[in-house]
Amino acid sequence: MTTYNAACMPGDGIGPEIIAEGRKVLDAAGEKFGFDINWTDFDTGAEKYLQTGELISEDELKELGKFPAIYFGAIGDDRVKPGILEKGILLAIRFYFDQYVNLRPIKLLKGVETPLANKKPEDIDFVVVRENTEDFYVGIGSRAKAGKQRDHLEVIRDLYSVKFGIDVETDSDELAYQIGVVSREGSKRVMEYAFDLAQKREKKLTSVDKANVLTDVYGLWREVFEETKKGYPNVTTEYNFVDAVTMWFVKNPEWFDVVVTPNMFGDIITDLGAMIQGGLGLAPGGNINPKGTSMFEPIHGSAPKYKGKNVANPLATIWSGSLLLDSLGEHAAASAVVSSIEHSILAKAVTKDMGGSMHTSDIGDWIAKDILRG
Ligand code: IPM
Ligand code: MN
Fold first, then answer.
1. The whole model's pTM is what?
2. Isopropylmalate dehydrogenase-like domain location, by residue (predicted)?
């Protein structure tokens, strides 16, 4: 029997409750399909930060690096200023392990209500491949203080001294800037991943950008897309601007198969995607480094107000677990997990937010049993 080693980081808020359900399901999938997952727990999160002042240490990161996969719950806590845990833990892991693909399936499961009138499961079934390490997420920016990033400041100074009469040297609290970085290598590798995925699906890839306005960064993105597509003559390609794509996701989701997009646009359009597939409770994600350590997490947050109430919907986490199985090469088990999620929805064995009466802790049991039966 194959044994996989995986890290588990439940995190804050509802994280531990939803991860517990995910683990029940993945363990059942192992039993059914003949493998074992040997879990190692990490207590990284708000509690530890509040007690020790440490977000995530180099040692913890090194330890995590021994695993092919991390199963991640959620982070965020009312007692910590927004951004600290998100940047210090979640983004830290994404960047440390160079998880350059953020894979976010947008799929309407049978029995799920979508807010889009007349759209059916066959209409809403695509995948967003979000670049996950560049763009405005590189963390280069400044509340403009003279002396930092001088060359950029020169330009900004000229612009704003005329526009609002701001003297950047003295009015250092009057403006801030953030830099988005796109690189040829960084774009190429995520596009290749997206093309490979499209080849396994309907062979259609849409690049989403804003190359009509942000011509430097997304101009390069397009140039790389044009080059990369030459290697995939059997994949149909098109471009959409990000503003327009938000309309098409709503009006014609059936047009899309695989979408590849820079980091920040990917962040935004996948929340829209989550909504059309039934809400954040049903939106899974994977942060993938195909040759390293990947991390799987629901795209929703830690919902602190539901912590410990046994009401949170664990389906997004369970579905993310299916992506984890896929990354380990356990494809049959991965699809069995998604099928059983679908069965639970059709049987109305769901939490209150989806119109059911089950508790968080019932869901994993139900789905695990369904997998073992199936
Ligand atoms: C997401 C989240 C994160 C992001 C935050 C919490 C850093 O919104 O995973 O989509 O912006 O990527
Ligand atoms: Mn987001």
1. 0.94
2. 5-367
